[in-house]
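Hey Z.,

So I finally got round to the fe (ii) ion thing we talked about over coffee. Here's the setup:
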Amino acid sequence: MATTTLTEPKTTAGTTAELLQATLVELIDLSLQGKQAHWTATGPMFRGVHEQLDVIVDDARTWYDDVAERLAAIGVAPDGRVATVVAGTPLDPAPQGWQKDGEIVDRFTAILDGIAARLRQRMAAVGDDDLITQDVLIGIGRALEKHAWMLRVQGK
Ligand SMILES: [Fe+2]
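And the result:
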């Protein structure tokens, strides 16, 4: 059966559904890469980095669930399949093996900054066309930028 788009609002920068789907993919990747780094961190900042990554992962899972369910609420089937995430994520692949804590801090600060920047573009694009979707994106962006700050100061 074809995908239903019963109430999908249009925006000037692609459909609301496209913006949500792009967000879904990178938040799933963030959660996976966060766990990988949680497991493979080494160094004197291990405890803090290990624990903060788990908070980020927990938040990312909540966020992508909110995004997926917003897609469903506007009548579009969310696509969180592994192949879709691999094909669509803008994040560089996680490095293999053990990772120094400082490198993790720098890499995840950049990852969170990048996602937050893309979210800001999407929340502006959604604009008045769909304030509820915009609210979802704003809430995620606010929390992402807080995590980025808390990571960034560890690397100082
Ligand atoms: Fe753990």
